[in-house]
Amino acid sequence: MKYIAHIEGQKIPLDEAIASDENTLKTAISVYFPEYANAEIERQTTDDTVSIRLIKKAGTKGNLTQEVTIQQLQESPYEVNPALKLGWQLKLLEINNQITLEGLIAIQPEIDKAIKSAQSWKSSTEKIAQSLKHQPAVTSKYPVL
Q: At CA 117, angle to CA 127 and CA 132, rounded to 5?
């Protein structure tokens, strides 16, 4: 019987002594691929070959930053930024030749409010984006064939 491990797009032939025991297999593979030390193992036998797929599992220690980021995204409002809404309204007035100095003066408080809101949104978005950039990569449970 032939044993082939599928890892990171590679097909790695294994000895039966290594492939037959899950702990031995994980130990041997984790020397070269440490992220597979706790991998889930799936086996499929076809003819005289056992294909072994190792699927990385997330560690158990957790990541508070990631949890906060996800919570921030979940709590963020489901609405269009008020500054964008106002910008579109002003553009529509301009297209229809309905924009006047008096009209702009009349909505100045709304413009100021939209600017402050946009600055707040920008700050929150930048914090979340920076947090996401620093999150560790997470492998899909579903291997690419």
A: 15
- Of the candidates 77, 62, 60, 73, which has an alpha carbon nearest to the alpha carbon of residue 132? 73
Q: Contact at 8 Å (CB) between 40 and 55?
A: yes
Q: Which two tokens stand for residue 69?
A: 């980021």
User: CA 31, CA 67: separation in Å to the nearest integer?
Assistant: 30
Answering whether pTM is above 0.85, one says: no
pLDDT tens-digit readout, 87-114: 999 999 999 999 888 888 888 999 999 8
The model's pLDDT over 41-91, given as tens digits with 9 standing for 90+, comes to 999 999 999 999 988 876 544 455 556 666 766 777 677 888 888 999 999
SS3 content of the chain, % helix, strand, coil (to 5): 50, 15, 30
